[in-house]
């Protein structure tokens, strides 16, 4: 065999060996699915495909950063990860941009190509610190469907032989399969991520379905209690069973707490109530001793109906939070239902009271008394409570309801009829013995003191005299109305009874117009002229001190002679004489009426 034939045989043998390596390498890299494993396998087999190479790295293009980033490397330090080139920067950037592989057979060629492609100083320093002095280099693009996605570059650190165009084509053939392997791995990774997301979504949907089912079950349970018109206490007990939480309750209508053994301090209750009327959403109230309460306000529009109060001894789960929110809605509906029942009952009591007043005979009164559990032969008194309007968050109706609860508590055994209208409460109370109502004024005064100590609206109370039999209810009502009118004209927020207003019992029977005419006829001359106002003040003082000249002059800071002169002038103007008892009485009565029934009284706090 000639030398030429031996050379051809060696070349064919070498080509067959390289082809076998290439095929085996492609089979290996395409069998991998995880992208990191695929990339590392690619670089390991790249050195097998070009056995003269000693080191290398693979870069992929980052669309967000718009540069090539090293993803895996062999015989390079981690510093190489900072070597990130833009398209057309350095050898790697040019090969990526043009899609044409290149090879270099000397260090000088490599550096000339780097400088020619405007490598940045940072990247130049990085590659010089990361690499040994390469004696040759081979760089090819990685493409997928004719679109470049990255590059591979191999370095020959010790010169073995010159790289050739055949090496470049051979390495490019390997790189073309690398693109397929990377794409396959990326598709697998994307599908894996989608499967994971689908699984997580399935779990989330399952969890949500479970929560929705639990929420539906809770709603069905609570709604059933509402349909059965169960009392608030039963609903609260069911909420406690569902959540295993200590749940207290504040009823804003009755102004009472149901604490469920929470032992809330009185000052804490007051502060919770104060915040309750300012906040419509759940809030936390923390004590100085680290006790903490979660308060769920119950509102209808802008009216506070009450709240649930839960002592927080740990984190309240989402499920329990949902249960409490549903419970708050059910409680609100039940409270409103109770409120409607109370309003209906109140309307019926109001109508029945009017029917008793209008009853034509004793038989009709007795029939109505039987329906109301009243005894016709009892002794009766009637009270009218009038409440001052306020800008408080609580409605007037709620204050009236709270006060009615106090009255029921104060008079538990007595027969009574109670109803409210606008800002007034009417109480008809009956007892078998007249002695039992003799201290009614004092009892109601104590009740008023207790009420106002809680910073609630002022009220005044007008009480009738005591009469036997229910047939006298018309007189009872009229006396209470007259007494209330007396309190009105004096602008007094106190408690008084008809038998305490004395002479005013007669005066209140006279129409206001007739009172005004009487006042004008008696002292009108002193009131119509401004320069005579000091005479009217003198007259008031004279009667206030029981016509004592010494005390009157001392009060007015004038001499007694000056007072005599003024009194004489008054007698001349009014054409009277203070020595005539009838004249003095008429003038004194006119002054009393003018001050108490016509003059606006200064508001009392």
TrEMBL record:
<dbReference type="InterPro" id="IPR029016">
    <property type="entry name" value="GAF-like_dom_sf"/>
</dbReference>
<dbReference type="InterPro" id="IPR003018">
    <property type="entry name" value="GAF"/>
</dbReference>
<dbReference type="InterPro" id="IPR042070">
    <property type="entry name" value="PucR_C-HTH_sf"/>
</dbReference>
<dbReference type="InterPro" id="IPR051448">
    <property type="entry name" value="CdaR-like_regulators"/>
</dbReference>
<dbReference type="InterPro" id="IPR025736">
    <property type="entry name" value="PucR_C-HTH_dom"/>
</dbReference>
<dbReference type="InterPro" id="IPR041522">
    <property type="entry name" value="CdaR_GGDEF"/>
</dbReference>
<comment type="similarity">
    <text>Belongs to the CdaR family.</text>
</comment>
<dbReference type="Pfam" id="PF13556">
    <property type="entry name" value="HTH_30"/>
</dbReference>
<dbReference type="Pfam" id="PF17853">
    <property type="entry name" value="GGDEF_2"/>
</dbReference>
<protein>
    <submittedName>
        <fullName>Sugar diacid utilization regulator</fullName>
    </submittedName>
</protein>
<dbReference type="Pfam" id="PF13185">
    <property type="entry name" value="GAF_2"/>
</dbReference>
<feature type="domain" description="GAF">
    <location>
        <begin position="34"/>
        <end position="192"/>
    </location>
</feature>
């Amino acid at each position: 065999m000639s030398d030429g034939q031996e050379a051809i045989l060696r070349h064919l043998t070498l080509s067959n060996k390289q082809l076998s390596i290439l095929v085996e390498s492609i089979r290996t890299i395409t069998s991998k699915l995880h992208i990191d494993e695929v990339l590392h396998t690619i670089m390991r087999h790249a050195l097998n495909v070009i056995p003269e190479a000693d080191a290398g790295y693979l870069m992929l293009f980052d669309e967000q950063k718009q540069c090539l980033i090293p993803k895996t490397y062999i015989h390079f330090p981690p510093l190489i990860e900072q070597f990130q080139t833009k398209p057309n920067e350095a050898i790697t950037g040019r090969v990526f941009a043009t899609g044409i592989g290149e090879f270099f057979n000397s260090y000088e060629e490599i550096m000339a190509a780097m400088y020619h492609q405007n490598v940045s100083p940072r990247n130049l320093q990085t590659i010089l610190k990361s690499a040994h002095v390469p004696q040759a280099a081979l760089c090819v693009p990685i493409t997928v469907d004719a679109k470049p996605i990255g590059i591979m570059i191999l370095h020959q650190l010790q010169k073995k032989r010159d790289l050739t165009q055949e090496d470049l084509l051979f390495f490019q053939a390997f790189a073309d399969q690398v693109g397929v392997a990377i794409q396959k791995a990326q598709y697998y990774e994307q599908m894996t991520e989608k499967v994971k997301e689908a699984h997580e979504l399935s779990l989330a949907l399952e969890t949500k379905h479970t929560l929705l089912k639990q929420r539906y079950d809770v709603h069905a349970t609570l709604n059933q209690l509402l349909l059965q018109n169960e009392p608030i206490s039963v609903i609260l007990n069911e909420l406690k069973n569902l959540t295993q939480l200590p749940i207290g309750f504040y009823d804003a209508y009755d102004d009472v707490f149901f604490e469920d053994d929470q032992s809330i301090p009185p000052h804490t209750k007051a502060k919770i109530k104060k915040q309750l009327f300012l906040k419509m959403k759940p809030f936390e109230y923390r004590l100085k001793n680290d006790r903490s309460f979660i308060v769920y306000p119950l509102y209808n529009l802008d009216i506070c109906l009450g709240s649930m109060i839960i002592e927080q001894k740990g984190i309240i789960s989402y499920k329990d939070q949902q249960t409490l929110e549903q419970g708050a809605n059910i409680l609100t509906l039940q409270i409103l239902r109770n409120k409607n029942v109370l309003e209906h009952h109140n309307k019926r009591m109001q109508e029945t009271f009017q029917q008793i007043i209008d009853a034509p005979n004793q038989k009709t009164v007795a029939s109505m008394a039987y329906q109301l559990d009243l005894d016709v032969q009892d002794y009766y008194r009637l009270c009218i409570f009038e409440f001052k309007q306020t800008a408080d968050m609580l409605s007037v109706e709620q204050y009236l309801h709270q006060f009615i609860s106090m009255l029921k508590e104060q008079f538990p055994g007595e027969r009574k009829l109670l109803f409210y209208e606008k800002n007034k409460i009417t109480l008809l109370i009956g007892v078998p013995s007249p002695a039992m109502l003799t201290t009614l004024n004092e009892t109601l005064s104590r009740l008023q003191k207790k009420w106002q100590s809680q910073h609630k609206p002022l009220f005044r109370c007008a009480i009738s005299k005591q009469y036997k039999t229910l047939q006298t209810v018309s007189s009872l009502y009229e006396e209470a109305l007259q007494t209330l009118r007396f309190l009105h004209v004096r602008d007094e927020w106190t408690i008084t009874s008809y038998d305490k207003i004395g002479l005013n019992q007669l005066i209140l029977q006279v129409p206001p117009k007739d009172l005004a005419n009487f006042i004008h006829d008696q002292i009108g001359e002193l009131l119509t002229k401004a320069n005579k106002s000091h005479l009217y003040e003198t007259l008031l003082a004279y009667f206030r001190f029981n016509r004592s000249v010494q005390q009157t002059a001392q009060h007015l800071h004038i001499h007694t002679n000056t007072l005599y002169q003024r009194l004489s002038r008054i007698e001349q103007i009014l054409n009277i004489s203070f020595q005539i008892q009838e004249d003095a009485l008429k003038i004194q009565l006119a002054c009393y009426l003018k001050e108490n029934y016509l003059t606006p009284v200064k508001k009392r706090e």
